[in-house]
Amino acid sequence: MKRAVSRIGWIVAFLVAAALTGCGYTTQPLHPQDVTSVNVPVWTLSKNVYRCGLEMRLTEALQKRISQDTRYKIADKGSADTQLTGTIEKISQRVLSGNPDTGRPRETEITITVSFKWTDLRSGKERVEVPTFRVAGTYIPHRPFGEDFFKGSEGVIDKLARRIVEQLESEW
Q1: Is 109 among the domain residues?
Q2: What b/e string do you get for 143-169 counting C-beta neighbours within 10 Å, with b at 16 or more?
Q3: Which of 35, 50, 76, 90 could make a disulfide contact with 113, Cβ separation 3.0–4.6 Å?
Q4: Is residue 149 part of a domain?
Q5: Is 70 within the bounds of a domain?
Q6: What is the pLDDT of residues 59-97, one digit of tens each?
């Protein structure tokens, strides 16, 4: 019995200490409360990007991530509170490691660079504007996985969508 009481005492002391030190926790919502809907039109490719369909895949990933991670609804431009637009500025790949026997890459890195704006359609003001935003990921192009660029870029696109939606959070 004494042991249980002492544990409870330690837990209470820890919680009081944590509350007094201000650990950075908040009960405030992550996303602005004055926004209920977002329009996400198909993103564009810059003139130097030649990967057909990548803009469609990113747009779809963004719409899914917004629906999944926020309380916002995806809406058409006429009824949305805000609009998230962007451009895929650059896609680069580099070999991280190679097979010394064959000379083929073992692991390849993909970096996607985008620029985007989150605009309030009611007031016309920019809520967020990011001119350069990079996300990288890796894939294995040869055996045993044999991933091509399309398959290898799926993880990078999902990571990029997640990181962009994080940028829509309220500032603390």
Answers
A1: yes
A2: eeeebeeeebbeebbbebbeebbeebe
A3: 90
A4: yes
A5: yes
A6: 999 999 999 999 999 999 999 999 999 999 999 988 888
